[in-house]
Amino acid sequence: MKKIVFNLGVSLPALLLAYILFPFLSNLYCFYRVSPEAVVKEIHQALQGFEFPTAFVRVHTGRPLIRSKNENVIYVYGGSSLIVTNSGAYPHNVFPGKLQEALKGKALVSNFGRSGMDSFYARDIFKYTCKIQKPDLVILYAGHNDYTNIYRKFVRRHYSLLKGTLLRSILRARSRFHDNADWHLDYNFEPIVDSYCAARGLLAIDFNEFLQYDSAAEGYYQDNIRQILGYAKENGISVLLITPVGNLYKKPVGNKALLQAYERAVSIPDYSRRIAMLSEVRDRDFLAPDIRAKTPMLRFLRTLEDAKNGIHVLDLEQELMKIEFSFNNDGVYDYFHLTEATHEVIKDMILRELKKKALLKERLRP
Fold first, then answer.
1. What are 65-75's pLDDT values in tens digits?
2. Taking CA 255 as the corner, what is the angle to CA 253 and CA 260, rounded to the nearest 5 degrees?
């Protein structure tokens, strides 16, 4: 009997340790066995020709503000950056609300920002709201979620080290985390595990592999933006595209060499060189919980300026660099949500753009 008890005392902890470690080790093995071609095929199968159902768009959009005779109508589209910030009361703490206050009596600003909005969502909401009431100007601030949504829906599960682990089961069982267990793991725990493994040489990223996923995201983004601009041109609607910006001082996840490049970059005294190197690090930070808009996307937006056809670009990244904007937690308090002070700066830049390019029409008073 004593022998049985002794054996159980030895074997049970070993079995428990195996139960905890086996899924993790299996995931680590699978990390190096992912077929990027298969993942890209899965992305295309899901997104080619994708449109949100009309009922979904109608329920989640709300109605625009209806103008009186003397007011311009401005619609603003984008993700949670348009509705979430670090202080103040919505809608006065984000740049669409600040624009409304500054243009009171001249324009009605409808903020259609929605959490998670990517270019698919923006395209379909844009068409729906323009049919309700034709705007004079559309402002689009979107791009981060085109990367983040594709990584969360299609890419991350193939590379997750915590998939099927005891930690995931515990979080799902806890009532506090039940509905958002996967989000908490991806955002709070997975980066810690990835970075720990990378620091000990257990994890190495093939950059070329992940560039294929970026390319898929950028391709769909470009197609959706062109559809928006085509529709706007056909209906005589002016568009102001704003290049999305993010926090460049977030430490990269899951790659030792990339972390070293980041540490070298932050120590550079010259502002322009430091921002350029941090941007390169951002572009290769594939395992970050939120993927920020990258250089290829920003370059694409910069090519779209076409004033004759009512297409205008506010290169927010470059304009902020002119004033040596910090691009750290002082201006972007997480990966890409802006502080209220940054929203104020953007509002002023947009007002200058509206005046410089005469984007607001003079309307007769009733």
1. 676 667 899 99
2. 100
